[in-house]
Design brief:
The protein is of the alpha/beta class. Helices cover 39% and strands 22% of the residues. It is built from 16 helices and 17 strands. Helix 4 links the parallel strand 8 and strand 9. The longest helix has 23 residues. 55% of the residues are buried.
Length: 437
């Protein structure tokens, strides 16, 4: 199977800078970009981009996809209240079919927004894995681990469940889904649980995903209980290692930022959710980058962000850092584009994608520049990062397969997905409300 995309401005983020190629076409054969040029042979399928921007597909480095079912459910609350009084009591009633419905809805949204890969950590991860495979989107899925009873079962069975999941979905670079371990946080997991997660991850060659330093209260409560700040505890238990995805990091010191860089872990900046939940603090993005670490962009869950739009999130990430540091030069558009594509694809274990060059895996987004808000466009990368939103995406390609084009999903029945999600959301919230009554 082959696909030709004609008349586009290619944006290829490289370690040495952004390479821009206007009025260019590319030809995809099977899952790879076969050729880039101006006059290319015809293909089985043809898409005229009409001058659109053509970057790599966007990679959402932290989220909880099934929480689309709780979008707008617990609004305008601080994090601790939001979790303890609304989210966790409702999640206690989760069933696999709730997770499946929420994951499908999230994937529907992500594909329409040019997202070709995402990292996820939530209950019943096998349901999200199946939804990703069916829809043809890449995912690093974490088996959620906490020291508490969940709808999946008691805490003493969590590691066994996680190991089973890793065996069913081993880490791999050449597929759609890779399994990982997701110890929720240093406040939700005992030190011995974190150490066990580290051992299990090494045994299976799996990555780790974890929340850390989201709020000041979290940092000091963990220190009071263990004598160590969360990142120090994670480090000591072997969880702060290469490509560990550390989500949030709003209360990270300069020395801790240095340590993130030294270990090869990745800080995932989720500015919208952090601002909405008023967690305070700002992820130390410049310091992590200064010490050779990688910073990625994540939306967090739809219950705390409301949208899964990585273009909006990238703009927020830039503006938060510029404003907080009084430095308008921080995080220029081309660097943000690399963070949300090439860097993220490599960090999530999909190194063949994240690039627009011959031989690369064809994971791509086609972003129109014809809406009023995109005109005129003096600079393509800044137009993409500062002006575009997911609604400007007109096509998404994953593994050479056109999965979304101009309001049509090729791998999903959008109407059925949304109808099912509404029904399952009503069922979940209804069960939670009934238990309170």
């Amino acid at each position: 199977m082959s696909l030709r995309i004609r008349n586009a401005t290619l944006l290829n983020p490289t370690p040495s800078g952004l390479k821009e190629q206007p009025e260019t076409s590319l030809r995809i054969k099977e899952d790879r970009i076969e050729e880039i040029g101006t006059r290319l042979p015809e293909a089985d399928h043809d898409l005229n981009a009409n001058g659109s921007l053509l970057p790599p597909g966007f990679v959402n480095a932290h989220g909880h996809a099934p929480m689309t079912l709780l979008r707008g459910y617990a609004e305008d609350l601080p994090l601790r209240t939001w979790l303890k009084q609304r989210i966790w009591p409702t999640e206690a009633h989760l069933k696999p079919d709730h997770v499946a419905a929420g994951a499908r809805l999230a994937i529907l949204e992500m594909l329409a927004n040019g997202i070709t890969a995402f990292a996820d950590m939530y209950l019943f991860p096998e349901e999200t894995a199946k939804a990703a495979i069916d829809a043809n989107i890449r995912c690093l899925i974490g088996a959620n681990i906490v020291d508490a009873t969940t709808p999946e079962g008691p805490p003493d069975q969590a590691l066994k469940r996680a190991e089973t999941f890793l065996k069913e979905h081993p880490p791999r670079e050449d597929g759609l889904v890779s399994g990982s371990l997701a110890p929720h946080s240093a406040y939700a997991c005992k030190p011995e649980t974190l150490e066990a997660c580290s051992r299990l991850a090494k045994e299976h060659g799996a990555q780790l995903q974890v929340h850390a330093h989201e709020t000041r209260r979290e940092v000091y409560s963990v220190k009071e209980r263990t004598g160590k700040r969360p990142l120090e505890l994670l480090d000591d238990q072997g969880c702060l290692v290469e490509n560990t995805l550390v989500a949030h990091g709003g209360w990270v010191t300069k020395q801790e930022a240095k340590r993130i860089g030294e270990t090869g872990a990745c800080l995932v900046h989720c500015p919208t959710a952090n601002m909405k939940l008023a967690t305070g603090g700002y992820a130390p993005v410049p310091e992590v980058l200064e010490h050779g670490g990688r910073v990625l962009i994540g939306t967090d869950g739809p219950a705390s962000n409301n949208t899964i739009d990585l273009l909006l999130e990238a703009r927020q990430a830039a503006l938060v850092q510029k404003q907080h540091r009084w430095d308008a030069t921080l995080l220029p558009a081309d660097r943000l584009l690399r963070m949300m594509t090439r860097d993220a694809a490599e960090a999530l274990g999909f190194p063949g994608s994240g690039r627009v060059e011959e031989g690369a895996v064809a994971d791509l987004a086609v972003v129109s520049r014809e809406s009023p808000g995109m005109v005129p466009m003096h600079d393509a990368p800044s137009g993409l990062v500062y002006a575009a939103t997911g609604r400007d995406v007109i096509a998404t390609v994953v593994g050479g397969r056109l999965v979304y084009v101009e309001g049509s999903w090729r791998t999903m029945d959008a109407g059925a997905v949304m109808e099912d999600a509404v029904a399952k959301a009503d069922d979940l919230v209804g069960a939670a409300d009934s238990s309170v009554d």
